[in-house]
Amino acid sequence: MKTSGNNTCQSCGMPMNELSDFGTDKDDSINTEYCLYCYKKGDFTDPGITLEQKLEKNITIAEKMGMPREDAIALANAIIPKLKRWNRS
What we know:
Layout: E1 22-24, E2 30-35, E3 39-40, E4 43-44, H1 51-64, H2 69-79
Antiparallel strand pairs: 1-2, 3-4
Helix pairs in contact: 1-2
């Protein structure tokens, strides 16, 4: 089932277009802020990760998907620090 609106994971920046893309809260309800890879059963899947580690993790994933490293670095640095989980301003 498709979702409406612009849903982006507020931890990794992944677009969430299908209900199956969304993470879950403790009661197994859909969490609309975080994706299934970042948030399960009401907790982050990588609770101790730092912003720098998250950036490197996403860069590595993008490279495995075929994106040149320079592009992956630029994209990660442009998006991730602005997301709810990482934006400390």
